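Reagents: none. Just compute today. VOC family protein.
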Amino acid sequence: MNKNPGGKSTVTPYIVVRGAEQFLAFVEQTFDVRASGRFPNPDGTIGHAEITVGESVLMTFDAQPDWPVTPSFLSVYIEDVDATLARAVEAGGTVVTELMESGITGDRGCRVKDPVGNIWWLQTHLYDVDYATIGEIFADPAEATKMQYAQESFAIEMRSRI
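Predicted 3D structure written out:
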């Protein structure tokens, strides 16, 4: 018996959206995925679906019309962030934070909003950061500018939802 069935991790995101079919289409077009199954409700909405991105299972279903919108925030490490971003935009995603390299994380990454409102952090890890010198990295004006931009671009997106 598997402790975590169906390839699930210790934590498996369950993403509740208005438009699960549109969400699944975005994920399938953006990432290398393996679909595990879709189970429709009698009205044609998705009652439950699972899709595997890399080593992680994502579960989703359609929200009821009278439920509040509950966007998810997902961080994904991929081999080629530039190619993944291009596919995400082609799939209907909107860039929230432009691609940039961070000396703080050692990643090249960006943020994208999918067609149903979830925010995806797309990242390719380039190098490990020596956290003993993290204070020096934060003190670098160029890194401080990047961090400020990353924070402000996310804040602008979130305030646009009010």
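Residues 15 and 60 are 5 Å apart (CA to CA).
Action item: order primers for follow-up constructs.
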